């Protein structure tokens, strides 16, 4: 438990100021780390801690989990004061890049390298409105053909340009 | 002159046509990626790493090193022309460099950068050649407790001074250590935390972690900042070469920057940014032109570049002699070496002299290549900066996918990169730095092994770490750094809060 800030007249506006920009990300981060540490501590115990002379499979995960748990508690306390500057997120770029990776992972084996690359390019470039759909498609064609030439023909990597052809 | 003979031998190794070619490819690609704004040397190395797996260890290492200092060099180009530093260290170069560019002296700034980089690199190379053998000799007397303590020192030193604060930095290191335990436990053969996924048996690949944390994360963050694009300052070819006065003002800053950089670079947990910042701060006090600092002066560009590049070289000292990387890029070097079955450490110098001295000699060759390549190619890099980012970033994401996919020919690695990259971006938003995580990830298995050996040696007595003088000293230093890091984080936050209160009190109505 963190003690409530003093209720003197001088500090009150400043507390309000600190709270004004408060986002809960820091605490959530701390709590996530706490959860992660719990997973490794429990997992460590299950794997077997061994004895000090012969540390078991689970000893190191357990110890690191324990250290992380302590740190996570302190991070939560520190973040309660909530003055960490937070970078403003760019969720559109985030979704586009994650989507592009997901598209590549889904299609690389099923459709082959060239279609996978093409789709990846199109999805990744979606957030850029200055590039019209046709431009995105052209970029996709150029890059996927270049990848075909570079990775399959030149470097001889064992990928199929198209699956089922 | 033992060192000279060894160095000469290394020079012969690196002058073999194949090694020479990979050195060139590394330097070229490194500069290429480093020039792209917002994409740093970490992402560059991560992207090149899959390519090196097809090579022998020596050319691979030479190429990785080339990518590293090439990217550090290339980072200065974007910072000078666009004020968008390609690497964090280049943000110091941007202070004077961008001013010079705005004054129409972009060419002079880029030219001085190239010369200063070369000078700094050479100073770093001499330091590494002189210092490494004796440090390796000292390290040969290390037992498991000393190794454990060195690793701990490296991890804490690298994380306790991170941007997000000491606690978060150390928490990231520990998270990295935990991530490193996934897969088969090498001592007992048991599986750990694989969640029944067969692909995780061998653990998480370092390329996946590095590509996710740096490639994907930096790419997401760079899209918005580069969407304007193409705002590079023009290059005036009539005003390209440094004047006589410029030349005269170069040697001092290069020597001072190189000396500071090589010292800082060799310390664990510091790195190029601190080296460049410190060298710039010092130069601002001692330079004959100090009054003009901030308005665009040549020594102000030369000093951080020299420091940056010499620190880049000397970062290899703890990496290769102790096996403890001082900075995240070096963690990737360690990871790459281990993939080849080479254990970095004091024995490396004895067992793989070709590789060690070949690498040192490659710094000379690579830096000459940088100079020869980049003076005529400055115009090309400038044109590269003019390519709108909307064409660049989708291409980079494809290269990331290809690099990860080609590791095991398996899309699972791509999925994992996605997960790690997404987590890395969210972490970045809340100032949880990714670099300490990678460091912990690479050093985790080594640390666990040394811990086990130490405990076996001491028959289960953990006091062994404090009873042996070297390990006790190292642990003492580690503790001091951690305490200082936490203290200074708190002090900075308190100061920031007080400043916030001040503004609040001054504007009661807002």
Could you describe the 3D structure shown?
Chain A has helices spanning 12-20, 25-47, 59-80, 91-111, 113-124, 133-154. Chain A has 165 residues and is mostly helical. By secondary structure, chain B is mainly α. The relative contact order of chain B is 0.18. Chain B has a two-stranded antiparallel ribbon. Chain B is built from 22 helices and two strands. In chain B, helix 3 packs antiparallel against helix 4 (57-82) and helix 3 (41-52) crosses helix 18. The longest helix of chain B is centred in the C-terminal third of the chain and has 38 residues, at 469-506. Chains A and B meet through helix 1, helix 2, helix 3, helix 4 and helix 5 of A and helix 8, helix 9, helix 18, helix 19 and helix 20 of B.
Please state the CA-atom Rg of chain A, rounded to the nearest Å.
25 Å
- Give the low-confidence spans of chain B: none
- The helix content of chain B is over 70%
Largest Cβ-defined interface: A-B, 74 and 72 residues
* Uncertain residue ranges of chain A: 1-20
* Largest sheet geometry of chain B: 2 strands, antiparallel
N- to C-terminal distance of chain A: 64 Å
Counted by DSSP, the helix tally of chain A is 6
Mean pLDDT of chain A: 81
Strand content of chain B: under 5%
Distinctive features:
A: about 160 residues, mainly alpha, about 0% strand, B: about 500 residues, two-stranded antiparallel ribbon
Question: What can be said about this structure in brief?
Answer:
The complex is a heterodimer of chains A (165) and B (510). Chain A has 165 residues and is mostly helical.
Question: What's the SSE blueprint?
Answer:
The complex is a heterodimer of chains A (165) and B (510).
Chain A: H1 12-20, H2 25-47, H3 59-80, H4 91-111, H5 113-124, H6 133-154
Chain B: H1 2-14, H2 17-35, H3 41-52, H4 57-82, H5 90-102, H6 106-139, H7 144-159, H8 166-180, E1 183-184, E2 191-192, H9 206-226, H10 244-249, H11 251-266, H12 272-286, H13 298-314, H14 316-321, H15 328-339, H16 347-351, H17 353-386, H18 389-408, H19 412-429, H20 434-457, H21 464-467, H22 469-506
Antiparallel strand pairs in B: 1-2
